[in-house]
Write a structure and sequence with these properties.
Largest sheet: 5 strands, mixed
Oligomer: single chain
Number of helices: 5
Distance between the termini: 26 Å
Shape: globular
Order of helices and strands: HEHEHEEEEEEHEEEEHEEE
Helix content: 10-25%
Strand order of the largest sheet: 9-15-8-10-11
Radius of gyration: 21 Å
Number of strands: 15
Length: 311
């Protein structure tokens, strides 16, 4: 995910990394951003009152919380390539375009072995200075040695199906119960049994779903996992999920959700999914960032798909 310079301070940045990593099934991450004139390593030692056992970058360089490579990406750091503290959006509490923060574009990471702390040494390149209104990524560093440096432990295989409806609907779905019934009926038509729910929130009720498994198109294919945990639904998918109930690909399109980042309900829900005379929060199919569920508010008479999840 990307964020402006208002991270809620360094503690807020740490909380973002912790929530993203936990939702992806790999807890134990902190943000690599400066606080005052201290570098992140100094901050961590001071807060923990002892040298941490070790750090490592999870996944390939420039990968997201799922270990999926992102290509070129720029990140907030608050310091320059020579490890000199610099502008940090007023201690990471400002999103004002008149304030500035320092980050890097296309960071290059080099891990050196044999260090007592196991500390990765970084070779930053292309330091950039940007307005704090700019949205950039965070570098999250894991603290847990239960994962191998070279290959993280495999995540549990997903246990449930999901699909995006081939059909599109206005926001007047007849309410949550009626939307859930649409998913049940379409799943049954496609040969799926069991209980299903539409991924929808209302202003008075956040989406929630139990269970300890994630969702994929094929239950026997971990490589097809789109969401690893229920919490993962509130962050970013592991991979694109634009497939309908028959297994056919969809060419993008809108997705009704009423749901913002962290599974927060939106105030825009087409009057509880009963009316075309309002606005509803919608995502965009096949996005791999937070816009999969929140890509703005659209008119409720706009046709959009539903995401159906097996309970």
């Amino acid at each position: 995910m990307k964020t402006n310079g208002d991270l809620g301070g360094v503690q807020g940045a740490d909380a973002v990394c912790t929530r993203l990593a936990t939702a992806a099934g790999r807890p134990g991450a902190k943000a690599y951003v400066t606080e005052g004139n201290e570098q992140p390593l100094q901050q961590w030692i001071r807060r923990m009152a002892a040298q941490p056992e070790g750090f490592f970058w999870y996944g390939a360089p420039q990968s997201n919380e799922h270990g999926v490579p992102m290509g070129d990406v720029s990140i907030w750091t608050g310091h320059r390539s020579a490890c000199v503290a610099d502008e940090n959006c007023r201690a990471w509490r400002s999103s004002d375009a008149g304030d500035f923060g320092v980050g890097v574009s296309r960071p290059v990471f080099v891990v050196l072995g044999g260090l007592p702390s196991g500390l990765p040494v970084n070779d930053w390149t292309n330091t950039i200075r940007l307005p704090c209104s700019t949205r950039q990524s965070l570098l999250c560093v894991h603290f847990d040695y239960s994962f191998s440096r070279n290959e993280p432990e495999p995540l549990p295989a997903p246990k449930r199906h999901l699909f995006v409806t081939r059909e599109q609907f206005s926001g007047a779905l007849g309410g949550l119960a009626a939307a859930n019934q649409r998913c049940i009926d379409l799943a049954s038509d496609a040969g799926f049994s069991g209980s299903w729910r539409a991924f929808l929130s209302t202003s008075g009720l956040a989406f929630s779903i139990g269970g300890d498994g994630g969702w994929a198109r094929r239950l026997d294919d971990d490589g097809g996992a789109m969401f690893q945990t229920p919490l993962n639904l509130g962050t970013t998918p592991r991979r694109a999920f634009g497939i309908d109930q028959h297994g056919a690909a969809l060419d993008g399109g809108r997705l009704w959700t009423g749901t913002k980042l962290w599974l927060e309900p939106s105030a825009d829900d087409c009057a509880g999914w009963t009316s075309v005379d309002a606005g509803g929060t919608a995502g965009t199919i096949d996005r791999l960032d937070e816009t999969w569920s929140d890509d703005g508010v659209v008119r409720c008479d706009t046709p959009a798909h539903l995401l159906c999840l097996q309970e």
